[in-house]
Amino acid sequence: MRIYIMTDLEGVAGVQQSLDWCYNNGRYYNKAKEFLTMEVNAAIEGFIEAGATEFLVADGDGAGGIDQLLLNPAAEYVCNWPAGEASFSLTDGKFDFAAWVGQHPMAGTAGGHISHTGNMGVVEQAVNGIPVGEFGDLVFLATELGIRAILATGCEAFCREAQSLLPGLETVAVKKGTQTDPGNYLSKDAYRKHNISAIHLSPEEARKRIREGAKRALGRAKKEDFGLAKLPAPPYVRTRIMRADGENPPRIIKQSHPSSILEMRRSAISVEVMPINPADPAIRKVIGS
Fold it and tell me: What is the reported pTM?
């Protein structure tokens, strides 16, 4: 039984904000990698107890979030995908199930911790008009490939987001964001500092709950039918509404394909610079209303 595990740093217990914890020049970056790797190991231990035997851990953090010296030896590890690789290795062989560890909520999530989608400049990402963060974006691809998602861990707001997209999904909350304003009107730099307040579990308690959650998730997945998203009808269009950033005005970035989520992700990117029209709902999301 082979399980794909996508990882990120911002949804890990003890990771407090991005600048000091999630960049390779941050003073707590190595500690964040340790925290994430140990949460991944906890998930692997739970999956093994429930019968899984093979694992591919995908490092989804831009700077790299896994410490390979600490990673459970039962797992293979992948990172740094080549240009044009849009599946994050979901297409590399057959996976029975997929899991997410350390995931953060989508941009503009009230109550989320370090909420963003790809980078702090994104106000909203959507596929065929359905708002999705990094989790939902990849879940749509996993669904197209027939790979069931069974576990997701992160802050409470992310867990709500994941369960909304995939009812029945096993989730484990390891912290709780305490901001109440989505912050869509903020600049990129101001937004980065906006949603960093949270109440964390201890790393040890977080790992215990993740281990138990992974064991429970795989046990349930053997008996219950959950983990595939309801895909919108093709053609597929993925849009990102971007904040003003330096000399760049608010803009929309688009990718599309007539029939395939995977090929949409591989398609050429088009950029539309949005006119500043306060009555335009897309603009209002960028500049605030």
Answer: 0.95
